[in-house]
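Review form for a predicted model. The reviewer records the input and the model, then writes brief findings.
Reviewer: anonymous (R2)
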Amino acid sequence: MPSVAQTRRALALSAIAGLGVYRPPASVPSARRLTGSEVTGVSYRVQAEHGVTTASLAAGAARAALRAGGIDTSDLQMVIVGTTTPDVLWPTTACQVQTDLQLPMIASFDLYAAETSLLAVATRYVAAGAAAVLLIGAESDNQLVDLPGQGGSMHGRAASAAVLTQAGGEAGVLATMTGGSAQPDGNGDAADRILLRGLTDGVADCLRKANLTLPDIDLVIGEQSAPEIMRAWCQTSGISSSRLVLDPPRYGSLLAAAPLMALHDTVVEGRLHNGMTALLLGCGSGPSWAAACLRWGGGGTAEW
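Model under review:
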């Protein structure tokens, strides 16, 4: 909860110094799909012929974000990686990035299947005093197998990153919120209703903390893996399609990498300019939901 002074002056909780993305070229081989007896054990996981690893994607996006923000690795005090596809559970992907970037012994941890709350978690550490936090969302297709009912669906492979630093004014992350509910009994419609109600209430809370209203928001970057929920929320909230960034074919399979990548692309493509406000929405199973309100302040962008 921001202080009275922060609310009155609309001061940011953290600044976004740089955004970086890493989208491997199409020439990089995809993971070979495994079925039947091949999935027994783990001998096929994360082999070189499967293509890029989650950690290497994350490190590439991290380098791009650091370069974009003009941040030296010595300034970092924390690395947070969100992913649903870690190569291994230990060491964490964040620790592998820490080693790849030759960082000292700083706090490094992963958030699994938690893309809805990534920006909120990192912002809280900056607001608590961390000088610079490296936030990464990364997904790969290395260890995925075809399970019954999946129909051969695959994750996208890409990573995005942001360097969050201490805020010095009105630009940056203004407010965040996270919420969730136990899975209700009944069909999927009941879960969707709870999710929509929770998201609506959560957005109202986030905007209240930022001293803004929905008409003040220039762009809404939606949850790319849940287009139906996003469109339903926009309809009930009165958000026009021109203010909504929602492109499932482009971002829908990227999960934890999608929010920061969509934010990066809106800046590069000229949809988000200095002084404009954006609302990032996330939702997932549980159901769970999250929102982050920011005012863009001209942080750098780069692609690895």
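Findings: The two ends are 35 Å apart (CA to CA).
Further findings: Confidence is low (pLDDT under 50) at residues 1-7, 146-152.
Recommendation: see findings above.
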